[in-house]
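Notebook entry, structure prediction.
Reason for the run: the old model in the group folder had no record of what sequence produced it. Starting over properly, with the input documented here first.
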Amino acid sequence: MQPDPTSLLKIAGITTPLIGLYDVPDPAPFAPLVEPKAGQRACIFAFYKQWLQGKTLHITADNSGCGGCGYWIFGKEHCSREEFVKFLVDKEGLKASHDLMNRWLDHNKPYKREYPHIMLGPLKEDYYQFLKTVTFYVNPDRLSLLMLGANYNNAPGNAQPVLAPFGSGCMELLPLFENLQVPRAVLGATDIAMRQYLPPDILAFTVTRPLFESLCQLDEKSFLHKPFWENLKRARKE
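New structure, fully documented this time:
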């Protein structure tokens, strides 16, 4: 059962809808749907405004919007490894050498999907079993609050609950999580190639289902109800 984020969102002052990434056998229940135009390149974040309007982006291996998303979300190769490395290093300048990029590609693997359809859009309570990650699109103040929430139940010696890894925007939504069963977050929307589609003061905070559940369980004993947050809101005149 999907936890209720209403209290968290109200106290945090988060008004932007939460966006879920779903791996599903049937896209129909997620209507109204939008899709990349077949044969045309489109970053999945170009659909950000449509997510906020209640629409869900539907992508597949054959229509993923761009080659990067096709590779990282669907494992579909559009060129040879050598060509891929040359493109990322020589054209986009994302690593200092071909060797570093090859080592990075060896370390990071595409997501292994369960079904043909990946959906990105507003949360659908009845399809929680297919939900893989939840993304909060927030300003730095709310990001700080969520990072504190991610650390609330984390003990010394445990894996770091918040990561800020190098990768494309679509990677930050899913493939960069090594284990979706661990309560963990990725600080995302740090890919300058996709930031043009977001407001300038917005970053992404993408969480696994276990961390989403933990955040929704924050109660009156937590920092949400303590002076630091209230002081910050007053300083912002909220």
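Summary: The first strand starts at residue 19 and ends at 24.
The old model has been moved to the deprecated folder.
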